Amino acid sequence: MNHDPLVRLLPLLEVRWPRVARAVALGTLTLVCAVGLAAAAAWLVARASQMPPVLVLSVAAVGVRAFGTGRAFFRYLERLASHDVALRGMAALRANLYERVAQGGGNVVALRRGDLLARVGGDVDDVGDVVVRALIPGAVAVVAGLGSVALVGVFLPTAGLVLLACLLLTGVLSPWLASRASASVELRGAAARGEVSARTLELLEDGQQLRVSGRLADRHAGLRAADARLAAATDDGARVSGVSAAIEAGAQTLAVLGCLLLGIPAALAGDLAATELAVVVLTPLAVFEVTTTLPAAAVQLRRSRAAARRLLELLPPSGPSAPAKAAPHAPGGVADEQSDGLSLVGVAAGWDDVPVVAAVDLTVRPGSVVALAGPSGAGKTTLLLTAAGLSAPVDGQVRGQGLFVAEDGHLFGTTLLENLRVARADITEAQAREALAAVGLTEWLAALPDGLGTPLGTGGTDVSGGERRRLLVARALLAPHRTLLVDEPAEHLDAASADALVEMLVALAHDTGRAVVVASHRLTPLGAADEVLLLGHDGTPGAPARVVARGTHADLLHEVPDYRWAVGQEAAPA
Fold first, then answer.
1. Residue 245 falls within a domain, yes or no?
2. Which of 154, 501, 550, 563 has the least C-beta neighbours within 10 A?
3. Do 550 and 469 belong together in one domain?
4. pLDDT per residue over 239-249, tens digit each?
5. Whether 284 and 353 share a structural domain
6. Is 51 left (phi over 0), alpha (psi -120 to 50) or beta?
7. 531 pairs with which residues across the strands?
8. Full-prediction pTM beyond 0.70?
9. Helix and strand numbers, DSSP H then E, in the chain
10. Domain that holds residue 79
11. Which CATH number fits the domain that encloses residue 499?
12. What is the DSSP letter of 213?
């Protein structure tokens, strides 16, 4: 299997190679016209200085006009053809990317929204640009460069060899140096762009909450630091471009001087006419247009490879060519597409190899429910992400995998039914109504103007926070997964609705044989859970959270005073 991320992702572009060949042909004709223009103009000037009859110059004059017009004409057609290839490829890549991500198992949920937007936006563009900015210019340079060397070699073979050497210098050495110099630049630039997008989106969406909590200044400082890193990476890239331009200018000068030093003795010896000397010396000035784009093409290749690597992180482990799994058809009969149950053995979950919660042992069997409780920041969400396979464990082992139901999962700007079909494409209207009824949205559905056909605003802006949470749970109920990992299902709901939703999840597990792990800030409804894990800190500064108590809800009420006090606060009148 090829491990180059760009080669692995290239099939998703669905590139039609005849279109690429047409773009290469038009690009070659463009450069042929440029070289022909220089050669014809050089011959015309040299011959005109000898004051021959005007008719002798007419063919060359027509040739100059034809090459000048043809250069612009073929350049325009080449741009149309190459951008047609690139834009079609980007559209196909996005469609295929969304399709593969919808199959599940990728690393989407673990990403911040801004970083995800940067990947499906800028990174897809960078991968698509590999055709128009790297592959096509490279192919054109090879064809047109060899043709130019042959043209000069016809007049003076040694001058042709000099031109070939200088073209290799700027066409091989310069791109190689540019590629090496841009290796770290592109990686830093891609990471910085993703961070800038993520931080900017966070400030736009959560600015008021950050201001209230006193963290707005820190977020502004973080954004400025990320922007400074992006600017530094851009500056380093500009220096790379400057070095490449210097090499190109030096090689071009070398080629002209070499052809001149070889051409003058040949002209004095009578082996080369004066007009031919002008062609040999001046043609290299236009020939190096062939290699001008190659350093940028090498950098683009590096940039596209880095972007492809980031996009592959979104895809299921089986890779970009994995076939879609067959979806089950019965609403209550969940397909056994995953191993039953879930177990965590000595798991430490965190970010960048820094554990947030450590030493967690957990077993969830089919039909059972385990609840995670604890204060905010104890690592409940991080542990669920690790259990779902969306984040690698810092330590320990995860066996089995489940569907992670995020607290802030995305709702799309389409109909209610299509939002539910994100879980499974073959969901019927009856199944959708059944799932909505299970989460307590029957009355809400009846009040909608078009029922299941009612469009939701982009990002779910037309629904309340509580309705969003219940819609996300309903979508999870329709998904073909044997294990559900539900993060804070009671968020944004009143106490009665929150308790009813958690109790519904418990009943679902017992009735259908699904395994459910639920993280909940409300403790009252956890009496129906088979086991409750209470996460907390032992007081050691900087130490990760751990399981400080475990057992049934009744056990924790009896043995843990803080747990009993929290339950009492929930029951107290407001």
1. yes
2. 154
3. yes
4. 766 777 787 78
5. no
6. left
7. 370
8. no
9. 19, 9
10. 15-181+234-312
11. 3.40.50.300
12. H
